[in-house]
Design goal:
Blueprint lengths: L4 E5 L6 H10 L6 E5 L2 E2 L15 H6 L4 H9 L13 H7 L10 E2 L2 H14 L2 H14 L8 H11 L6 H7 L1 H4 L7 H7 L5 H12 L5 H15 L3 H13 L7 H8 L1 H14 L1
Parallel strand pairs: 1-2, 3-4
Helix pairs in contact: 3-5, 6-7, 6-8, 7-14, 11-12, 11-15, 12-14
Length: about 270
Amino acid sequence: LRISHIVRGDDHLTNTPRQILLFQALGAELPRFAHLPLILGNDRAPLSKRHGATAVRAYKEQGYLPEALVNFLARLGWASGDQEIFSHEELIEKFRLDDVGKSAGVFNAEKLQWLNAHYLKERSALQLAHEAKPYIAQQHYSVPGDDEWLAKAVATLQPRAKTIVELVTLARIYLSDDITIDPKAATKFLTPENLPTLGKLRIRLAETPWSEHELEKTFTSFMEEEQVKLGQIAQPVRVALTGGTASPGIFEMLTVLGKERTLSRIDRVLVSA
């Protein structure tokens, strides 16, 4: 036998004396035993399926990154000062069984989401775009562009997503032209008073070279000419393009969508009004 360490929950503590006797009876070298406090759910009961997903594969399916899950599990009952974020190399350097506390750790799903959001933001957009592709396929979306385009789309959503699944859900505005307008948003922003202004802006956008800088120049000059504020035109545009009132920055979103898709969505609103 070449087992050096046995690390397990402290619910196996009573098994250890008998197993030591078995090792000795077999003439095998005795491994080092470590018994860790159990992981509890929020109700302070031992973690089980009724508390949610418990298999590693399930967390992958939900869009959690390996680094986030490892970081989260390492911090359950263990600490190194006040530090919360640990790289793989730092965990190897700092983690010691002697530093594991005796109290049970509580599985906090919100903490895991917070960690995952951190690692999502730290990812390069290109790498995250590659990792998102299987989740995009599961939602039966087609990507209307190359990897560089997808990376640009992902970059606009990274600050708002907690998991890759949530990222793909947010990316629907880029991946599908089947946009449903929220009635409340339409009532507030696609009003008879706003639509003529939106129509004028649509004409200006059709003449605009498609870049963030040029789009911002167009909006600025249009606001001066029409004596309107950014919110008065940005929100109607946002609702027309996404169906709702929340989205990435208006200029970066327009750039990712492209001129043809942007004008088409605005036209659909103007025609149906």
